[in-house]
Specification:
Layout: E1 3-6, E2 9-16, E3 21-25, H1 36-42, E4 47-51, H2 68-81, E5 87-92, H3 94-105, E6 110-116, H4 125-141, H5 145-155, H6 162-173, H7 177-188, E7 204-209, H8 217-226, E8 230-235, H9 242-245, H10 247-262
Parallel strand pairs: 3-4, 3-5, 5-6, 6-7, 7-8
Antiparallel strand pairs: 1-2, 2-4
Helix pairs in contact: 1-10, 2-3, 4-5, 4-7, 5-6
Amino acid sequence: MPQRKLAGTKLHFADSGTGPAVLLLHAFPLSGAMWKMQIAPLRGSFRLIAPDLPGFGGSQPPSSPVSIAGFAGLALELLDALGVDKAAVVGLSMGGYVALELQAAAPQRVGALALCDTRSHADTDDGKRAREASARAVEEEGSTEPLIERLLPNLLSPSASPELRREVERLIGDTSVEGAAAAQRAIARRRDFTRELGKIGCPTLVLVGSHDTLSTPAEMQRIAQALPKARFQTIFGAGHLSNIEKPDAFNSALRSFLDEVLG
């Protein structure tokens, strides 16, 4: 997998396929590898770019505090380095926060948007305290094991197979302690986009797993209703990581949308 040094950080990414560019932004606390079930079937029609954000997967851990806006800036730098003027931007969970920041910073670079199992609003005070406690637990433990214990039950539906749970555990295990802690604090500080959704002019796909308890279908439907050009779709039988748990349904929805707006 290639790497680029951007803003002093070695960023690892996948770049596969030909056609209109699609930037895939991963969830916390996973990496660009979570998109492998999308890259394989879609690379015949699209150029799929999936970075590991700093501290995740193969990317270098951050040496200073990070922000969601900073992640968006790095993603834009990567597109510049790869000669991509405009891309469809797909973000799931934390990746959705980054996608919203990227679209706000450079709307002319975003041809279409897909917000998957994510939120538009900022954390509550209780949510911020919980993220800080999670960051400290990881730092004190010196591993991402606390994240597996705390998050895994909410990332997949109750019917997910043991094999799938082990795969998600492995992806979490590839995250550095520094990256996980820094990202938790960045997520806690993210800005609220709820009142800005109406300003997003590009076509937007809003996807959610029917069993998602973190970004519920009702919450995601409210996001879709606030967007001027939105398509809302539920991935039945999936939890928060809908692209991993039900890849065929997810890919079908994403391909149909991309074919329509990028074709």
